[in-house]
Design goal:
The chain has 217 residues and is of the alpha+beta class. The chain is 40% helix and 21% strand.
């Protein structure tokens, strides 16, 4: 077993996650090149998983439990929140299993193909990045920011540039996304103004305005 792996196991970080700073603290007398070589050898030995440059996790057999994928997403790229199909699936609004974790960010687009799955981050510019986003407890030691249904739909409409109310209407959600109209009608609109106030996209705002009118008839 690699020396780095042994020291990380002894340290026992939550979910086996650690970063370059931790490695530096464990090997203060080693230079950066030597520490990179230690990490490379541990990854090559399949004892450590590389999630991205600077973020690592012990392989399954060396950690007590795995972090929730949403927690990994938060560590891969910040600021961000779980949204789009992933959030809609989390809230039980779409029937399909989602095989990647989709997040929205106010920063730049990114994607990470990791040993723990594919994580995508798409930019939605807004003055209120946390409007319609809730802090959700995933397990005893992990939390994640997750879009509520209205915010997830808002993010989705913004990113689907080809979608408009005039051409697609509510059918985009009921047919293309396979959401039940009864479920859509139960969506909480209490943060509607906060979500829309931060946007500067007329197409998205118009879609949400018409959607609200349709559901209130």
């Amino acid at each position: 077993m690699q020396t780095l792996t042994e020291k990380i196991i002894k340290l026992s970080p939550p979910f086996g996650l650690f970063n370059g700073t931790v490695v530096g603290n464990l090997f203060p007398d080693s230079n950066e090149g030597a520490r990179k070589l230690m990490i490379h050898r541990a990854v090559h030995a399949n004892e450590v998983l590389r999630l991205k440059r600077g973020l690592y996790m012990l392989a399954r057999e060396y950690r007590k439990s795995a972090p929730h994928p949403y927690m990994i997403a938060a560590m891969l790229h910040a600021p961000s929140h779980i949204s789009l199909e992933t959030a809609l699936s989390f809230h039980g609004l779409i029937p399909e299993a989602v095989f990647q974790v989709s997040s929205v960010t106010s920063s730049r687009n990114r994607h990470f193909n990791t040993p723990m799955g594919l994580f995508t981050f798409q930019r939605v510019p807004t003055l209120s990045p946390r409007a319609g986003v809730e802090s959700v407890k995933l397990s005893e030691n992990s939390w994640a920011f997750i879009a509520n249904p209205l915010r997830a739909i808002t993010d989705l409409i913004y990113l689907r540039k080809e979608i408009s109310w005039e051409t697609d209407g509510l059918e985009f959600l009921t047919e293309s996304m396979r959401m039940e109209k009864e479920d859509i009608s139960q969506i909480d609109f209490s943060q509607y103004n906060d979500i829309l106030d931060g946007l500067h996209n007329k197409r998205t705002i118009h879609y949400l305005e018409e959607m609200k009118k349709e559901l209130q008839r």
